Amino acid sequence: MNEKDIQAISELLATPKKIAIIPHRSPDGDAMGSTLGLYHFLLKLNHQPVVIAPNDFPNFLAWLPGSETVLVYENDRVSCTKVLQEAELVFTLDFNALHRTGEMEQVLNKLTVPMIMIDHHQLPDGYATYTYSDTAFGSTCEMIYNFIGFLNKKSLIDKTIGTCLYTGIMTDSGQFRFPKTTGTTHRIVAEFIDLGVNNSEIPTLIFDNNSYDRLQLLGRALQNMKVLFDKKTSYISLSQKELDEFNYIKGDTEGIVNYGLTIKGIIFAAIFIEHRDENIIKISFRSQGAFDVNQFAREHFSGGGHINAAGGKSNDSLANTIKKFEQIVSNINI
Hints:
This protein is of the alpha/beta class.
């Protein structure tokens, strides 16, 4: 972020304002961690921030400090639209194209107040007044830490802010295993731990809080796994009927795609999940090494993300979507 933009943002934040903070649709740990971390920081500057999520976030993130204040657009479009229309400043975090907010895009497109984008995905759109975009970072939460530093306000980071940012860094880095986890990442996390952030409790709250139904759904997903050994690829599918059978709730399929990468020799994994209420097949892609799932998702499944983690969608049937995927994979080098 250049000095001119930092100065302009500092001036915007110099006086109390009504501020909307927006994560992407189906927010994950980094989206909720960054928005809530920024929320608590802006409270300390005497602003009136409100986090508005396009749709519900998973239950395993409901313990995050401030999560009870989050408004959900799909649950109350009228109230959320009013907040957005009254906002004097808007932050969009962990996404770089307004269509990632779903129906909220229609409202956001009509706003005339300054927007600030902070994001680490590729190919950002040009909607924001001020943009802090850098694909070198493994998480938006790490960028929020830097953003606070740009404003010379690191002294305001406390246990609450650190807890939110730690959560996003930890989840988006694959618990500090992904390649974009740097020495700087660990030094930032160390600062949070020194502030009292409970680094042993947070992974437990996120990953070890399973319901019986969720474990049964995981079992079915693993039973459904197919492996294309000659293409170093694995994929999992879950139908709406299977989701219903195990009383699916949002977040239950989080992380399942990663099991495919644990198979020796596999470098490309996918999961296809049928959601009839949205008339869509949601897809997640993961890879190891140089295989670019961001490019794969953009070219074939109207998606995108990072080199080693991306998402996509299909409006075709589950069977036809999987057939298309197999045909594409059979004709590329992996």
